[in-house]
Amino acid sequence: MLSRSFPQTRRDVAFPVIGSIVLFIVLLGGGMLYQTILGNGSAERLVTTMLIDAIIVVGIQIYIGNTGILSFGHIGFGAIAGYIFAVYAISPEEKLKRIPMAPFGLTDTQVSPTVAIVIAVAVTLVFALIVGIGLARSGAQSGSVAATVITLALLFVTHEVAKSWPELTGGNRGGISFGIGESLKTRLPILAMLFAALLVARLYGQSRSGKLAVAAREDNLAARAMGVNPLVQQMVALLISVIVVSVGSSLRVWQIGSILPDRFFFDYAMLTLVMLIVGGRNSVTGAVLGVAVMTAARELARRLGQDGFEVFGIGLDDAPLDWVFRENLNSVVLGLAMVGFMIWRPTGILEDWEFDQWLYSKFGRGDESEPERLAELDNIPDVRFDASGINVAFGGFKALTNAGIEAAAGEIVGIIGPNGAGKTTFVNVITGMVEPQSGEFSIDGEDLAGKASYELSRSGLVRTFQNLRLFGALTVRENVEIAALVAQEHRSERTLRDVDSLMAEAGLWEHRDRRARELDYGNSRRLELARAAAMAPSFMLLDEPTSGMSDTESITMIEQVRHMAATVGAGVIVIDHDLAFITGISDRIYVFDQGEVIAQGTPAEVQANPQVQAAYLGSAAMT
Amino acid sequence: MLEVSGLTTTYGAIAALRDASLTVGAGEVVGLIGPNGAGKTTLLGSIAGLLPISAGTITFDGGDITSTAPEKILRSGLALVPEHRRIFADMTVEENLKIGGITTKSSERAQLLDEMADLFPVLRQKWDTPAGYMSGGEAQQLAIARALMSKPKLIMMDEPSLGLAPILVDLVFELLETLRSQGRTIVVVEQNATRMLEVADRAYVLRSGEIVADGTGQELLDRSDLFDTFVGG
Amino acid sequence: MSELLQNLIDGLGRGSIYALLALGVAVVFGIMHLLNFAHGELITIPGYLAYWAFTNDWTWWALAPAIIVSAVLASLVIERIAFSRVRGATDFTMLLTSFGVHFIVAAGFLLYVGAGVKQIERPGWFANTVSLGSLNIEVFDLIVIGATFAVLGATTWLLQRTMFGLALRAAASDFDTARLMGVKSDSVIRGAFALSGFLAGIAGVFWIMREGQVTPSAGINPMLQGVLAALIGGLGSLRGAVLGGFVLGLAEVLLRSWLPVDIQNLTTGFVFVMIALLFIFRPGGLLSVPQVERV
Predict the structure, then answer these.
(1) Tens digits of per-residue pLDDT, A364-407?
(2) Which of A135, A137, A149 is the best substitution to test chain C (most C C-beta atoms within 10 A)?
(3) C217 at the A interface (CB within 8 A)?
(4) Domain C2-281, CATH 1.10.3470 — does that match?
(5) Domain boundaries in chain B?
(6) A405 in the same domain as A292
(7) What is the pTM of this model?
(8) Residue ranges of B 62-81 with Cβ closer than 8 A to chain C
(9) Which of the listed residues A621, B12, B126, C34 has the most CB atoms within 10 Å of its CB?
(10) For residue range A234-269, what is the model confidence (pLDDT) as tens digits?
């Protein structure tokens, strides 16, 4: 049924490859141009350094960009890789000078640099796996502070060990170095690896794992409600990024010809982070731009700091500004760039603009026509949802007492009650976001109590949120696609609907390329509905789908919810405070008050119930 | 005393409140009623300075308080008892009250503490207990007492009966009566519409971010279309 | 037995400084959710002042108050220039801002004072010890422990008994509601930074005395110890931060004495590994503050 499968060849493979080629050529071309104009050795070294930095920054981008977790630890991983590479690649004669007592007989071992890089990557991956488990345990998610400190601690551990284990590392002063003529003299491996890094970063960004990681970055809770396990995607992103960073760090050591603890410490972590942040951490294009901009800015500052400087032949009389243009000005520039961007443009120059996706939207997409309306399914699998005896207390406050509902496939069940009646708590319980003191709930007899929310949604119970939780930086299409990606993997036994059709169904076709955070309220609500439907759920749980909508919009929403549910064959459990909406849409209604189910029945029965009127208009009406 | 005109507040793309105007005279008890999501809390939050306002003006006690910091608005004599009470859970009852009276002189504060202990006997019993250990009804009384500590000229309450058992709801309304008899000016957001209208001098009905009706409590009670407007028809 | 006692006292001395640093980190984190990676600058900046004063023949009696005052001022100035502009921004943004501030300060000293190590002479009694039975206790440790407990006591009094302390705690637990009570956001945030600076200043006196030198990047270690200790204790908990400081200090000293001689120089590495294990088994730290996920 799925007319567009993932990944889409043009958008997710071909254009990213083209984009990587272009980025590679532009960065290298710019460097070559600069080098030719200046025509001296120091310019050449600067460009080589920039290319290596680019590999490492692009590697870091794979993690920070896709997960939103700030990591200082990648340079720590770089240190591990760098030392392992050096210890294996340096000739025994050189090692005898610095580390004659190296453990594991490493003094006498030598392998080719390529093999050394492979060993370095493999060993570093083991460390990354361990750190990744720690990060997952700490509940790492976009912006989490504890995760950042863990990565910072890693940076310090590697530095500390490198300093205080001279038998292996040559210690703080000497380090270890390649013999004369052993260090990297050609740029070829660097260029090859830079290109590979760009490819990996872009292809990962467009991959299933990359997209799910970005969804979790945008809204962890909503991603879990869509069946995404963020911890798995974060781990994948971490391992891939560590591979790239390890390769880049090995090259860095090889090219410089030696390694010292301070080479992979605070200063370098700061440099690479600033590069990433300045360009725009959420995009590979941004990372590359940041490398170029910061390399240029630092070089300029370095030259300005030198006495009697001149830039491109233009000499300036720097005497009045002597107090600024001093040696080491370039490190001040780093700090200023960081703070300045954080204050005025925290998302960097490019935000999340990606060159190849722009290219694709301009030239790659061809004509798109709005899909036909979807037919409603007529053979809906017979599935039942049962919840009973659910009790929840927050402190001394009983939010739910013995609450329960039943729903069958294809049915629309309404839950209504005044503010504070426990409706949302109930939804939070059956979607795994609040743990009940007691109670059980199941789909088709499969006990679901105690499962994580991403497991519940994979079992077919998919929710929307009262206060709208869309993946704001992603387009409308990407929002729906993420749910479809999960459905493809976990809901394949159901009828999976095409992403484009679902967008059209929700009336979002014309907005398909807009970012979710730019949508108005009604469209945001409809996008939540389409995204939930794309999960091919057995039951859709809609939490206040009309809150904030006007009366006419609410009435249209009734039809849209009904139709959308019928096209994916889902039962609907809908919560709302609006009696007109609930009675208009529901086949059966449960009335909640003070955390209890006080009435149930058809809309007519419930409306006639005096207790319901009392719950709505106040207890005085009961008398 | 309080005059709001043309107030519009938006969250991102969402206009939670559109062109709302209302007045509150000295000594009045004014109710704000309407369904969940109607914009009542947004209205109070906007007046109190917690939410950025897109359009409109608010004057209080003769001064313009539009787009003023919440602490300044409080200092001009306008207090808000926020939704869900928002008491400081790990501070004791006494400390919560003291914070409420942070704008008063320390001698006056001591006297106000005594007054609150008299007005709310349950607080006196739990004086040194961390507020997080109190029941919903007790916490609500603390929240109100805390707001009274600043000696406000006008006190706004957001759903004081929310989540309380019926007997405690009675208590909240008794308290409203007490405060009214002390001649205080009060604005209350309530879902418990009938009871609110019975207590209020005047009330405004909100729906979908707009004020759709206003009148004295009795006028609104007598309007047969109220049920429909209120629960959505 | 006596060795253990000796280690405990050493560890308390070390932990005291960490506890002061961690408490300062926690106070600021509590109020604006900023994990301050520039906290160490509150030692670097007074460190250079101390160096300057020392070359001008100040005594430690004059130096100590100057260090504390300059730490408070530095804290306030940094808040004013940098952190006040990112109030309410994401944790990510605030974290990187503080990291940037660290770099600007460090690079500033590099630019104008130079990379070299600047020596500050320790007071004459620094190396003195008092013997108590078989124990040899450093006078320095005794003073540090005594001063720390006095400062912690005073801070507790400040937080529990003064209106400023109440306002600070209220704002840390619910900033908006505190403002609704009339707590002035600017004053309470500046107050938090001043307190944080004061605590760092006290720690700074001892840190500078112990190190006897200052370099542009001198802030990195105290920052790391403070941040880690705050995290060990449980971010958001002031008691946790103090506890975390002492735990970290004791762990360092005890581990160093238990490790075989040939790997003793890896103590710090092992401490980090222990911290990592702590986070894996107790992600919220020792006194974790329960985090309710808002749906």
Answers:
(1) 887 788 888 888 888 888 899 999 999 998 766 788 999 999 99
(2) A149
(3) yes
(4) yes
(5) 2-85+154-231
(6) no
(7) 0.90
(8) 69-71, 74-75, 79-80
(9) C34
(10) 999 999 999 999 999 999 999 999 999 999 998 999
